[in-house]
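Dear support,

I submitted the protein below through the web form. The confirmation email said the job was done, but the results page showed an empty box. After a refresh the structure appeared. I'm attaching both so you can tell me whether what I see now is the final result or a partial one.
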Amino acid sequence: MPVSEQPPGPQDSVEAELSRWTADMPGVDAPTEAARQRIGRMARLFDRLLTQVAADNELTAGDWATLSALQRSGPPYQASPTALYQQLGLTSGTMSVRLARLSQAGLIESVASADGRGKPVQLTPLGQERWRAATQQRTAREHRLFAEALSPVDLEELNQLLGRLLGRLEDEFGQATRHDVPKDA
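What the results page shows now:
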């Protein structure tokens, strides 16, 4: 059923505050401000979901991001620490601490490099298993949340609208990072 035909859902926090904000911000376009606020709040709530799922799987969100980067590298699921910290936007020190923690947990291991200069790390079978479990849990929770709020047609329309908006923002500012970069070590 199209959005306009669905019964109204609960009032969100932006709707509850919008008229007060716009009264204090002359010249601000209320629909634009509402959309921006909603997108920002949803991003923070998705971060919260990711952090909860990571904890359920004995990971930090940063650990999961690192395991995800290794998983995305494809077989043999390895990368140098330098490549990882650059991809994740971290300092080398933060990356070292994270890699030590993941190694101690048995989720990654150091491997010999072909050129002998660096010590890449790779996912262990346990690391892949933990990454898959967390990812399956996250995607199931996200699917449930979307399905409870939107019909399949609404979700397709939302994706089209968000795609147009993201394309315009990327035209203006360039691409954002392709993957979440958690704030924790």
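Response: this is the final, complete result; the empty box was a page-load delay. The first strand starts at residue 78 and ends at 79.
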